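Morning run. Coffee first, then this:
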Amino acid sequence: MNKNDIWAAIHAERHRLLDALSPLDDAAWQTPTLCNDWSVSQVLAHLTAAANVGQGAWLLSIVLAGFNPARHNDRRLRKYLGATPAESLAILRASAEKTVAPSKDYVAMLGEVIVHGQDIARPLGLDLEPEPAGVYEVARFFSERAFAVNSKTLVHDLTLEADDSSFKAGTGPLVRGKQLDLVMAMAGRPTYLTALQGDGVAVLAQRMR
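And here it is:
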């Protein structure tokens, strides 16, 4: 995928998430997600912040946060957290087509939308299926880079193999499953390990502890 394709995929996944969340009642927005201690509202605000913070603003924010990523993320999401779920949706919807990013690693931005979308969807029991082509690009990126998540280190000396696409990476004990489940495992979500097979799954589980 080229740069334009990646941005189109990012926009599509933002809209997919917005459509999935629109019918939720207010109580569902306080549901804990798979991302640390954040609620649905907080993860959505984090994604909205990512859609609006370019390189200069990101650098200023991390400096003002004392180079503390947790403090930086908390400050950014609070800025984009709506007073109501409807307002939070409206803020992201207004930003969904933006092409703003803190770096030129645009696949990392796509990975953020896909991973956080699943962080939200799974606890809510929502069927949120991202486009396979985009998931494939994120799987490749995560297996080769430790950027926003410590993915490359996590899967070092393991063979990753998707059973629903041509994705395959690495050498060593096998970890096999759907490419989306592999992406979520590479993002450090242990919940997804139960969907994977192979001798490498136990190794991956140990590294996540």
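Residues 76 and 199 are 40 Å apart (CA to CA). Good start to the day.
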